[in-house]
């Protein structure tokens, strides 16, 4: 039997990367709330599971229905909370009174032939989670948050969205008490489509405003992204 001993380099990546300051804060705050009796660990687990199963499907259904039904479109723009209920989203769930971060004023921003909307939260990462689910990672990055409010047309082009010069870009900054969602225009070539067919091309990115719905595009994956470049002379 050989007496040689070999040190083998660790090749398996740890299951958990280095914890961030925000994760430390979340753990500390969660444990303090449980200790003070604001909610139980079981209630926190149930709410977390509820939040994680939310996706953009109800929002896509809402927009598709608005494209087909002018009366529902008016409801969506005048009373988006009521329109949300029509597609199965109650902003008061699951607690019955909402949460400080989610039960807020909600507004749907309708694109026009000359105006394109895009949402951002320049301060942190406010997002209409009850109807769109959790925000994508890039939405929470300082790169997106800081640059979208300053150079929106360039940032949109980095997502592959080139808007004509005649289309103005309106950046809507979310805040602690206000959430927004974009209602894009119905694309050409969808005449005679059903609500289900239309909802399939309304992706999460369309509802944020960094993409436009197109026939044949039914994925939220952005395939063409150019590197961020600081605008010269800005």
Automatic annotation (TrEMBL):
The EC number(s) this enzyme carries: 3.5.5.8
Alphabetical keyword list: Hydrolase, Metal-binding
Keyword Membrane: no
Pfam families per the UniProt record, alphabetical: NHase_alpha (PF02979)
Location of the Nitrile hydratase alpha/Thiocyanate hydrolase gamma domain: 21-211
Domain of life (superkingdom): Bacteria
Gene Ontology molecular function, alphabetical: thiocyanate hydrolase activity
Enzyme kind, highest EC tier: hydrolase
Family: Belongs to the nitrile hydratase subunit alpha family.
Name of the featured protein: Thiocyanate hydrolase subunit gamma
Organism: Gordonia hongkongensis
Organism taxonomic ancestry: Bacteria, Bacillati, Actinomycetota, Actinomycetes, Mycobacteriales
